[in-house]
Amino acid sequence: MQRLFFVRHGMTEYNLADRVQGGDIDSPLLPQSLEDAKKTGICLKDYGLQQIIASPQKRAVETAHLITSQFDQDFTTHYTDDLKEFGYGSWEGSSILLWRETSPDSFYNLRNRPDLYDPSKFGGETYPELIARGSRAIHRSIEQFPENDLLFVGHSITWTTTLLSLVGMDLKDLRSQEPLANTSISELGYAKGKFILNAWNQTDHLR
């Protein structure tokens, strides 16, 4: 069975400040995140991962670089826009609290009811759109490297919705799992066209 590892980027200044940080914006990693990414690399180094697929956003690129700095083997990193974070339109960079207070229904559906979430008024991305591109990137990588276990480095909502969708969870339930921590590791197994969830939001390596 092919093993697919998924890491969320390290915590950023906007994460700490509770600001909306989606596919069109970035902020620097915090100093602790630099160390956490290296710890993640130490945890993953013995798997012999040679193909890394990552979001091209700065926070993911830097996290991927720090992870692979701990590897002994040769590897290649590939970047794809399909793995960018969820697009929040005009809410990008804004306060999460402001969104919750001024548009409570929209914010509730974002966090709790993906099937009811409608971002059309502020030019955001829908959950089905996000899942389609995230799934496309994963399937494409499997087709390119069928004999390799793979490491993906990206974003919280992209991983949450895409991974749970691939294992068969309904759209309305995709936000029901615990949120992915920064530099956490999740894992899917893949064989004969089917995915299984082997691990979710593992953080023991950060202690």
TrEMBL record:
Molecular function in Gene Ontology: phosphatase activity
Residue positions of the active site: H9 (tele-phosphohistidine intermediate), E85 (proton donor/acceptor)
InterPro entries: His_Pase_superF_clade-1, His_PPase_superfam, PGM_Phosphatase
Gene Ontology CC terms: cytoplasm
Gene3D superfamilies per UniProt: Phosphoglycerate mutase-like
Binding site for substrate: R8, H9, G10, M11, T12, E13, Y14, N15, R59, E85, F86, G87, Y88
Protein name per Swiss-Prot or TrEMBL: Phosphoglycerate mutase
